[in-house]
Structure formats: structure tokens, C-alpha cells
Amino acid sequence: MKRESRNAKGARVVGLGSAAPEGVMTNFDLEKMVETSDEWIRARTGIRERRIADEKTATSDLSYLAARKAMEAAGVSARELDGIIVATATPDMLFPATACLLQDRLGARNVAAFDLEAGCSGFIYGMAIGDGMIAAGLGETILVVGADTLSKVTDWDDRGTCVLLADGAGAIVLKPSNGPSGILSTHLASDGSLGPLLCQPAGGSRRPATTETVQEGLHYLKMKGNEVFKYAVRAMEDSTNRALKMAGLESKDVDLLVPHQANYRIIEATAKRVGVPMERVCTNIDRYGNTSAASIPLALDEALKAGRVGEGDIIAMVAFGAGFTWGAAIVRW
Ligand code: UT7
């Protein structure tokens, strides 16, 4: 599946917010759990510490905190929302949708609410769908959340994954664009043939959870990290270039590149191939690890608070994740 779009009417981001659990897990904590070292983790991934949710906190809890902040920043009440999209691979339950749990908790009424599962690319997918809903006249105010609690599906004995994965949420409010600022282009793509390289094998309808699947650890996230790495760099480069081209822009026009935070080396390689110097790249993987669908809005929110984003700036966001899925969005702030 490949979909490229240039928005006809278009949406703009009117509010942004993010949330992360308070609990910090450092590389030194991980050294006590698996055979690894702070030095290896920093050198191979760029991560120093990550936020991990406690037992009581689920994806909808972090989504709620991020959503409230985004709505406050936008000056939008729950009653004004027409749509809620939650991009997540770790919903509270398989159903009902986490978006419906969020709708109830926010007190939104007469609102379309659904989950979107595109792994770590979920936020870009959600933004593209929200943009499309506005362009199609399906609503005027759409809340898009990217949230994951990957720690809940982490095998804490697997050093190949447990050093990477973390929890967080980010949210944006979209409204119709009434000026030059807005989502200029989006590019979405997928390749399901590579799905087994990054998956949670059991717990769905193919292999429902049984005592055996739990004993075999098939409810945990499995990843062939080095193979994912190769595809991620190529796909993120391609997607950014396509989205830039659709927007009639080039890499030199990018004021800030906000890539999915999976691995510092992936970020660096992608930026180099796209042609954006690291001073114009947003990274916070050192403090947050890989928060999946939350990573882009978490990083963008940090950049905004640090004064790195000005009105009219061109922001390129790009992600890659389970599916495989990938995608990019070009936004004029
Ligand atoms: O979110 C979207 C999707 N996810 C990603 O994009 C993640 C992509 N992949 C990665 O970030 C990297 O592949 C990893 C960080 C997961 C692994 O880094 P790598 O450089 O690809 O290492 P590797 O898997 O090729 O393993 C190299 C060595 C192996 O040892 P031998 O066989 O060379 O002796 C591993 O067993 O490093 C070993 N290793 C570790 N050593 C210490 C693997 N994990 C660890 C660890 N600590 N945590």
C-alpha cells in the first residue's frame, strides 16, 4: 500500500502537549537486570535513561494527560472535539478502543473515536488521517494522540529490546488551516511482508493468549533489531524526500527535522542521507528511549518549549515502525 497526498483544504496544528511517566530507569538500572552496560547502550543507541510507567498506569492514562495539555494549549474544550484518534500498539485492552476510553474521560460528546495501529509510525498516520478528516469535512476539531506503554510488552530478560523500549504520550489538536500554516504534505507507506521482524506474536486471534503462549513469552515484543535498522534508515530517507517533494520543498528548507526516536544512529544516518545537519534535528532519545507512537510529539513538544520552533518554520516529521509502516509529514508552523 502506498498513499501520497497533497491536502486540498488542510489542517493546522493549534495545540500540542505531551506526557511521560515519572519513573526513570537508567542504563545502570538495566545493568542489574540483563547482561549489558551503560557504555554499550549509549554507544549503540544513544539512550541514557527512559521513563517507565508504574503498574497502575496504562496507555489511556498517559494519553489523557497529553490530550489535556494539547487542548489547553489550543484553547479547545472537550465539547468542541469532533474526532479522537489514538495511535497506539499498546491499547489498554484489545477492545474497546483506547480512543473511546479517552473520549469518556475527557467528557467529549458526539465524537468519532477510534484507535489506529501503525506501530511507531502511528502518530504520522494519525496526523494524516486527522488532516484528511478535516479536508473531507468530517469535522473541524480533531484530537490526535500518539501513545504507547511498550514497557507492558517488554521482555525484561531480552537485552536486545529491553534497553530500547519506553513509555510516553503526545497529542495535537488539528483545526482547518486558514492561512499559510498547516500540514503541507503527508506520505504513508507499508510492507507487511517484513512484519515478523518486529511483532507481538500472541494475544490476537491468530494465537490467542494461553498458558503456553505466556510460558513461551509470545506476548512480548520480538524484534530482529539489526534488520529493522537497515530498512528504517532507507524508508525514512525515502519518505522525507517524497513528502518534501509533494510540498514543493527541499531539505535545505527544513528548519527542524523531527524523526522517530528509535536509535540515535538511525536518526543521524537518516538526517545525513536527507541532507539536514544535526543542529536542525530534534533528538531526546537520550532521556526518553523509544516511546513508539509518542516519540515525535514528545520531541516536538520539547523543541517548542525550548523555543526552537517559530511561526512559519518548516518542520519535517518522519517515522518507521512495526508493520512495517513508515511515513512523513511536512508542516508549516
Ligand atoms: O521503533 C522502530 C523500530 N525499531 C528500531 O528501529 C530499532 C532498530 N534497531 C536498533 O536500534 C539496533 O539494531 C539495536 C540497538 C537493537 C541493536 O544494535 P546493533 O548494533 O544492531 O547490534 P546487534 O543486534 O547487531 O548486536 C551486536 C552485538 C551482539 O553480540 P555478538 O553476537 O556480536 O557477540 C549482541 O548480542 O551486541 C550484542 N548485544 C548487546 N550487548 C550488550 C545486543 N544487545 C545488547 C545489549 N547489551 N543490550
From TrEMBL:
Beta-ketoacyl-[acyl-carrier-protein] synthase III C-terminal domain span: 244-333
Keywords: Acyltransferase, Cytoplasm, Fatty acid biosynthesis, Fatty acid metabolism, Lipid biosynthesis, Lipid metabolism, Multifunctional enzyme, Transferase
Active site: C120, H260, N290
Pathway: Lipid metabolism; fatty acid biosynthesis
Main location: cytoplasm
Beta-ketoacyl-[acyl-carrier-protein] synthase III N-terminal domain boundaries: 114-192
InterPro entries xrefs: ACP_syn_III_C, ACP_syn_III_N, FabH, Thiolase-like
Any one biological process term the GO annotation gives: fatty acid biosynthetic process
Localization annotation: Cytoplasm
Gene Ontology MF annotations: 3-oxoacyl-[acyl-carrier-protein] synthase activity; beta-ketoacyl-acyl-carrier-protein synthase III activity
CC annotations in GO: cytoplasm
Annotated catalysed reactions: malonyl-[ACP] + acetyl-CoA + H(+) = 3-oxobutanoyl-[ACP] + CO2 + CoA
Domain of life: Bacteria
Enzyme nomenclature, EC number: 2.3.1.180
Region annotation ACP-binding: where it falls in the sequence: 261-265
Domain free text: The last Arg residue of the ACP-binding site is essential for the weak association between ACP/AcpP and FabH.
Subunit comment: Homodimer.
Family statement: Belongs to the thiolase-like superfamily. FabH family.
Function text: Catalyzes the condensation reaction of fatty acid synthesis by the addition to an acyl acceptor of two carbons from malonyl-ACP. Catalyzes the first condensation reaction which initiates fatty acid synthesis and may therefore play a role in governing the total rate of fatty acid production. Possesses both acetoacetyl-ACP synthase and acetyl transacylase activities. Its substrate specificity determines the biosynthesis of branched-chain and/or straight-chain of fatty acids.
Name used for this protein in its record: Beta-ketoacyl-[acyl-carrier-protein] synthase III
Organism for this UniProt entry: candidate division TA06 bacterium DG_24
